[in-house]
């Protein structure tokens, strides 16, 4: 399949944007201006100002002398770039590959996209009419090369769609400026009487290079398709993604579910065929009014099961507000991993972490309660309690060491030890009672101490003497005394965890 590109030219980008915010200026002459070499110079002119002979590059003083009623506004640095990026992201509904063409255009790689709108002519009409309905004066063209599409969108007079392989014929009658040349090069060409591309296209390449440099030849080769031109996408392309444009805007939850099922069928078929499974996926809904709605899901184990993934998304479909309707759905598998072959039959007799039903249950719970609500912990190679464990990255991660079994550890460890008041004989007797959050606990049973030295190679601090105690209610706690026993000096006691 040959490449096809669309070039969009925003003829009055910044002034159109300003009119959208100041509608009273629509038919009035006004300009944007910025300081340049000690004077104010026009950077952009409205259509009304241009019709009266005011153009970019003119000094404001000269323009106002010619048109006293001209309104002048200060140009905002970087405004055109921000507008183009915003418009480019909006255009992703038409193709995933878009780049900004500074200072007033967009380039779209539309290869394999136009047929979804009924062909290139309908595709181009749809984009142009939608942008014009937003208030932007645009011209667009389609060709095999970026250079030809750019040239025709700005200088073409006949048709905006150049048939494949006919870019040379489309360029012949256009001026050299249509090749995206430097202003100085264009001026030298005009001085030599080369006012059309057809005047120079047949000249020897060595003569052109000697007189005008390699830049002119490179642009000519790019426009003719003799040299590849690459673009940097505005948004990185996700390797695993599927798009579903809608002939009619979708406004119902049932319609969203049908669209999601179709996307999952396509995506999961590809993932399964490549032995992959997704861990994180995002569904983006492009609304008719230009707003984007995103919902995401995550899984504990790489999976390509469309039914399971649909159940996870189904929990979040109520969050999607379609408004006037959704015109494009985009499903992206952001995180993908190798997946074990999945049996068609129901898995049974395989309990524990390897049970697929368990991982799917955890996914559904996370979908309802939140992605960060379920955690799995593995032992870590540290004796200091706060560093003796780590959070697993997935349900399938294997521990490097086994959990210590010599001494009991609490089921719940506080994020930070909390100070308590303790009454205890000295020096190494367990507490007789302690006060925690205003409540006094009488200690009925106790064991200890277990001395844990601080890891001096990581941090400085006191050692700890831990005790396992049980109060009159049968509840068990993990307490410790910080530091050495120091005679009559008061000791610091803390509670660090609770046993089941």
UniProtKB/TrEMBL annotation:
Claim: Endoplasmic reticulum is one of the keywords in the record: no
SUPFAM superfamilies recorded: DNA/RNA polymerases
InterPro entries in the record: DNA/RNA_pol_sf, Rev_trsase/Diguanyl_cyclase, SulA_CellDiv_inhibitor, UmuC
Pfam families xref list: IMS (PF00817)
Keyword annotations: DNA damage
Domain of life: Bacteria
GO biological process: DNA repair
Record domain UmuC: where: 14-153
Family named by the database record: Belongs to the DNA polymerase type-Y family.
PANTHER family listed in its UniProt record: BLR3025 PROTEIN, BLR3025 PROTEIN-RELATED
Protein's UniProt name: Protein ImuB
Organism: Anseongella ginsenosidimutans
